[in-house]
Design brief:
heterodimer; A: 271 residues; alpha/beta; 9 helices; 7 strands; 45% helix; B: alpha/beta; Mycofactocin-coupled SDR family oxidoreductase (chain B); NAD(P)-bd_dom_sf (chain B)
Chain lengths: 271, 277
Amino acid sequence: MGVLEGKVAFVTGAARGQGRSHAVRLAQEGADIIAIDIAAQIDTVPYPMSTPDDLAETARQVEALDRRIFTRQADVRDKDALQAAFDAGVAELGPVDIVAANAGIAPMSLTPQYQEWTDVIAVNLTGVYHTVEVAAPSMIERGEGGAIVLTSSTAGLTGIGGNTPGGIGYTAAKHGVVGLMRAYANYLAPYSIRVNTVHPTGVNTPMVVNEFMQQFLQADPAMGQAMANALPVELVEPVDISNAIVWLVSDAARYVTGVTLPVDAGFVNKR
Amino acid sequence: MAGRVEGKVAFITGAARGQGRSHALRLAQEGADIIAVDLLEDIPGAPYHGATEADLAETVRQVEALDRRIVASKADVRDFGGLKKAVDDGVAQLGRLDIISANAGISTQMAPADELDEDMWQNMIDTNLTGVWHTVKAGLPHIKAGGRGGSIILTSSEAGIRGYGNIAHYVSAKHGVVGLMRTLAIELAPLSIRVNSIHPTQVDTDMIQNSATYDLFTGKQGSTKEEFAAASQAVIALPIPWVEPVDISNAVLWLASDEARFVTGVPLPVDGGNYLI
């Protein structure tokens, strides 16, 4: 029997990468999934973003585990659309116990433009705020507690990310997520709703493993060196982040809240 | 279904009762064999009794009831030689070492920093900081010899990441544990040996369930358990007065398991949001 049997989880950015891994890993432990993704391109993002086919593949993998999944294309920047998607998911699968605010972009390029800042703050910070805002009221009203995990980054704890509007904005947004986490952890604690952040180092996903990100990193050799992990591993796998999220949202971590949890192969500690 | 630490061996200090016993049981439930040590003596200045031989025997009984093996002995974390012998004997019998849980710790005199007795200060540092270093120093050669990596979990405290009045020796030792963890994490990363610390808030064990600790939290003499519960809950964000030993064990287990294979150098609070407030 899974450690999340009978729970419902709301996962943003669920079409591929870490988000798909979270959906599958949570489903393996017994949860049903409300999966949201933009499944479309944002102009300042140099690598190809997810597609409706990707989101359908996530649905296929969750259903193969005999769990239910509700999918909807929605942009975390659009709170009304996100609320509508959440509400439709709850109507189909029941009330949400778990939130994984995972959706994020990395608009770092060698032809920087101001709009990168605007977009990355909108998705990676405001989008996380929207995600909690659309889910938390129903969790409070239900009175059964719950667990929220916000995906930050090692760039949420250190000043990395690159000196471009997209890189600076990424670091600022991911630090901002820690502020959101701490504030929500305080406000939601009386309702036994826990809120934590995870801070991945580089993860083997299309957001990191693409020609544009590699060009961006290689353009500044000092940065490539600064990105090295302590443990002898170049990139961690999506499932490593998922395993941290499964632990954080399970009863094994029933009294863990307000915590910044790096899953970073020792990256932050070695700096 | 295979346990999450199936086939591994864990060395646990302070294993006769409280958090240490809970760690031994939780790891054994998930398939580990255990090397357990405890001081089994009263601690000068402590407002509670030390663990007994009967306590350690009970830990042994409970681990064996899970069909796991356990090698238990009396050892003092302040005495490196004795501790090393206990681990060496345990590894000789159980064949390997993968996990270290440096859990042994004490709580003693409570007074402003300039009024703490010198021997109370020294014994605290010797036990709660040097004892942790001894524990790692004694176990590490065996983990290295396995060549399979490993996981070291140092039990610090909420007092390892924030200050508290009237226990400067405890706060200093527990902060020191974080420095040791951060350094070991760097030194051992190339060998895939991970090192993390856990920071519990108040845990429901003999070490805090005593009148001196009640008074420390309430700020008045002769406080009751109910008054302590209210004062303790006031510093924890979640609506709870304290956490249970198994909550710390669940964090130890996760850090020890492959689910956390890329988690190292992390101070992990298990504190109900104590750090937030």
